[in-house]
Structures are given as C-alpha cells and as structure tokens.
Task: structure prediction
Amino acid sequence: MRLSVRLFAVLRERAGADAVEIVLPEGATVADALAALRAEPGLGEVLERLPARLAVNREYALPDAPLAPGDELAAIPPISGGAGPALARVRARICEEPLDAAELSAWVGRPGAGAVVCFQGTTRDVDRLEYEAYAAMAEERIAAILAECVERHGLEAAAAEHRVGSVPLGEAGVVVAVSAAHRGEAFAGAREAIDRIKAEAPIWKREVEADARRWVEGTLP
Result:
C-alpha cells in the first residue's frame, strides 16, 4: 500500500517537502512506517538522532499499531514548547493573526464564574519566533485537553488560541483563559491546560535573530 506522510518543522526542512510517500506491505505497522521514513533522502540522519512519533488519523499511535490504506499519517518530531458535554464549554483555535487576551477572557465568562485566569506566552530574548503547527490535529488535541481540564477542575469554561507564523518580540504566541467558581480551581485548570498544550499539541517554534535561525529543542509527546 502507498501512504503519504506529512512532515513538519525540521523534518520538512530536511526532506525539502511537506510530505513524502512510502510503500508498505499489507499488515504494516507504525514501526514499519518509521523505518521506511528513515530510508528517505534527507530524513535518515535526522531521524537517527532525533526521535519522532507517528500520528495516524490525527491521534498519536503506538509502534505496533496497524496501518490501513487511506490512513492520514504525520511524522511528529519533538514538540517545542475528548468528546462529551465539556466540549460545549471549550474553544480551541490555531490562527495567524495577533491574539486578543481580553476577548478570550470575556468568552470564558459565565454567570457562575467567580474567577477568570488568563495566561499569555510571549516572545522574549529574540527578535521573533516562527511557529509551525499540524493545525487540524493541534486544534483537536487542544480542545480535548481543555475538555479534560473542565471536567477535572470543575471549570465553567476554557479557551486557548495559538498563533502560527511570525510572532515578534513582546507579542503573545499562545493565550489560555479559564473560568471557575473559585480561584483555586481556575489557577489549577489554567496551569494544567498550558502545560499540556506545550507538551502534547503538535506545534513547533524557531527562534529568529538578525544573524541566526534555529529550531527550539523539545520533547516527544
């Protein structure tokens, strides 16, 4: 079977393409797909020193997971940085335009909310950050994280937006806002949300200065 694998960040740069096609036998697994990727020009060396995970149909997959024709595959290098009633109280978005923390804070406002906590992650120390995302999967993953935070911490609502593209010094690349009846739950929910978004959402960043550009090291989700 012939499958297309989407590439992001350093993998996309090394391959010189947004995706590569691999040919696998019927019954192949995620581990087989990763092995095939290592044989692709430009990817072998980087995958030997840089671990990667494979997302199948926008979900992180284990090495022994089987693949089928038509699966949507994406190679996920280390990241820089559910369904149910709770989803009605969450908002997740990937966008290119500047973020509005006040608007997001207003969105999570509810009659039963005695506390609203808003976190902004801003560019520091460098001229700008350039963000890249597997946008469709990132939005779904962020929404699931927020829904779990709503349930776990008893939040009234939770919202998060993340920019892609260039984010200049001092501007926000990510905003998380949550509301709850009390401040303890609001602080805890906001902290878990941003920590998990940075660890689990397929988003990468590159530091850019006048004479240098480098991808920020991260960890596998």
Notes: The chain has six helices and 13 strands. The chain has a mean pLDDT of 92. The first strand starts at residue 2 and ends at 6. The chain has two domains: 2-76, 85-215.
